[in-house]
Amino acid sequence: MSKPITVEHIQSFDVYVLHRMGALREPLVCYPMVSFRWPGLVKLTANKWRVDVEFRHGALQRIPVVWTQCHFGGWRPWFRCLRCSRRVGKLYNTGVSLHCRRCLDLWYASQRRGSKSRRYLQALKLRLRLNGVANLQEPFPQRPKRMHQRTYDRLRQLGERLEQDLRDNSRFRDRETDYSPLVPK
Ligand SMILES: [Zn+2]
């Protein structure tokens, strides 16, 4: 079995990167070309207090930004995870939402039952890594622009191995993309 895909493989969204870009200031500024940096996103609008993102697949999310005073002066920005309300520096892209590592782990844990289910989960994570949607009814994701062809070929092979019999199994194929544990009420 190949190495499991971990949360580190999933596209992350770092509050410090936005801060360095100067995106977390008073005026609300729209960045239409963010897919260069975050291939799963098509648009980003930000100011000091919030970041609005539009995902490639059409979903929208508003992420609150909060500030805490540093020990030696100055202020430090954080995202507030919409699901658990924790202050975090990094969020992870599920394809339709950005949530903190702990919420993602909970989601994965809730899906991890039996060897087929584990494989199903690996297949979904692989699709997310390739900026696809976590659903076996969708075609396998295309090669992300900046990924080497050889890496993509290897991952696609892995994906085919993981998915081959799952796609013939209605229990997995017809499963709705279940992001419910991640989507705030
Ligand atoms: Zn969270």
What does this structure look like?
The structure is a single chain. Helix content is 29%, strand content 23%. The radius of gyration is 17 Å and the shape is elongated. It has helices at residues 15-21, 101-111, 114-129, 149-163, 170-173, and strands at residues 12-14, 29-31, 41-46, 50-55, 60-69, 75-80, 87-88, 90-93, 98-99. The N and C termini lie far apart (37 Å). Residues 180-185 have low confidence and may be disordered. It has two domains: 7-99, no CATH class; 113-173. Strand 6 (75-80) and strand 7 form a beta hairpin. The strands form two sheets. It has a six-stranded antiparallel β-sheet with strand order 2-3-4-5-6-7, with helices on one face. The structure holds zinc ion. Zinc ion binds next to helix 2. Zinc ion is lined by residues 81, 83-84, 86, 99-100, 102-103.
State the shape.
elongated
Order of H and E elements: EHEEEEEEEEHHHH
- What is the count of β-strands? 9
Strand proportion: 15-25%
Query: What's the gyration radius in Å?
Result: 17 Å
Supply the helix-strand structural class.
alpha+beta
Distance between the terminal alpha carbons, to the nearest Å? 37 Å
As an assembly, this protein is single chain
Unreliable residue stretches: 180-185
- Enumerate how many helices there are, as a single number: 5
Secondary structure: helix percent: 25-40%
- What is the residue-averaged pLDDT? 83
How many individual domains?
2
The major β-sheet equals:
6 strands, antiparallel
Question: Which ligands does the model contain, each kind named once?
Answer: zinc ion
How is the largest sheet built, in terms of strand order?
A: 2-3-4-5-6-7
